[in-house]
Amino acid sequence: FAVAETPDSPLVIAEGFATAASIAEATGLATVAAMNAGNLPTVAKALREKFPEREIIIAADNDQFTDGNPGLAKARDAAFAIRAKLAVPAFKNVTTKPTDFNDLHKLEGLDFVKTQIESAATPTETDEQRFQRLAKLTPAEYDRVRDDETRQAGVRGGTLDSEVAKRRPKSVETLQGGALNMVDVELWPEAVVGADVLAEIAEVYSRYIVLPASAADFLALWNAHTHCFELFQCSPRLNISSPDKGCGKTTLRDLIGTMVPRPLPTENLSVAVLFRVIEKYKPTLLADEADSWVHESEELRGLLNAGHRRGGQALRCEGEGNEVRAFNVFAPAILCGIGALPGTLHDRSIVIRLKRAKPGELRERFDSRRIERETVLRRKLARWCEDNRARLEGCDPELPSGAFNRLADNWRPLFAIAEIAGGDWPQRAATAFAKMISQNDADAQGTRTMLLADIRQVFGETAVERILSKTLVEKLCTMSDRPWPEAHKGHPVTQTWLARQLRNFGIATRALTVGDERAKGYTLADFADIFERYLPVEGETKRDSVTMPENIGDSQFPKRDREQGCHASETHKTSENNEPSRCHASNPPALDPEPIEALLL
Fold it and tell me: Where is 352: in which H helix or E strand?
């Protein structure tokens, strides 16, 4: 788009319209907007063909806060390709993370823009940069510039040909399959209200899928986290599970894929593919039929586990010298399948258990060919996350007291997003947590922690102080909704298995007399310290409970916090509805156990 034309003046090519307008106003020079960074080289070449002798300046966006600085990289490519000058904005203060000449105009004035544009210089290029740039050209384009490039590089034509050939991608004819299409989300052009777009996304899920209570709200928050997962320590795996086929796992996976960045649907994965594709693309992994292949590969499970936490890596020997290289494996992942995931992967997941829809229960059928609304929501969500990156990264949200250890790791990003979105989303996140951990029996704490919770329940139901090992095993194996009937290599757990698990907590069997029988067993006192350390207070998280928001009261937080206010409200920014943000609270309030306990009774 031609913003201004001044005959015989230097021609400036900028990335966006606002940037070009600021430059034209500051300098009076002819100015063109390429509209995006990826289009800069193409526009530059077209204008060089039209004006072969004219001085051209490429005005870069300095995306110094984005990995790889794409604005500067594309601008440099354009400048090198057409022998143009390059201007890069420099800022005195970068606290607001400015990037372009429009930001410079607003922060420091038009004179600074004019001075920096007039100071543009021809960029220097290393041999490697030259070879890489030329390798991106088509053979015809390379032939047209070969002689000029040879003279500028000061090498023989054959040497240039050889170096460029080494860096060209392999011919498509020699490869099998198709190239991955990983396109970044185009941000919505206007500012977005986070609470509103999250509500729209939750409504979409409720329209197409029969979901457990509050799962639509959870999915909206999980969707948001995929657009900014690198800001958090952990990325909870989403496990979409069902007891049989036809429950909507694949449909839900495909629907989620319309609203996440760089979706990568797959029905199988190898270890080599997983760490390389994450390192290169940072995709959102959408894995279907996970029950048929995750269980079979211990190494693959290990990488999926490592990808749960920021900094997770796969180490491999690469190249002729077998140099050790680290590959990033931190990325969001959805794992769909029948039944439960392996224990360590299950611990890192939040589970949605689907059931087959009854006739007439679905409001609408999802049609993957018509995703206009979902595409708009994805763009809006990406824009909101981009605009709120600093606030999201700095948020340390309040968590319910039932969230600790890995369960807290999994839910912390979602509570942070809810806090920053504002509106009723902190309450909706708390309700989703209460309902979903009720459904999941709080077993995301870990298999051994789950075992402790069930042992505590056995002691409570039998109202005894001591129990024989064989009796405890029998009680555990009657819990049909738990893994104990098949946790020992597909068979019911045994006394030996139980003793081996409890040994990790320092609990050993002892000789006991119970009634007329004397045998190995355990006392309640043996578990007192362990229950206190590893389990929430009884009543806060319990199996078979129905924790509804109307039973909890008008707030997820205790009366003392409702009366006194959040510890952070006086010192931290407000959320979008102007309510105080509860980020960085030093003493996160607990769920009030009294109404929950009354409900259970």
Answer: strand 349-353
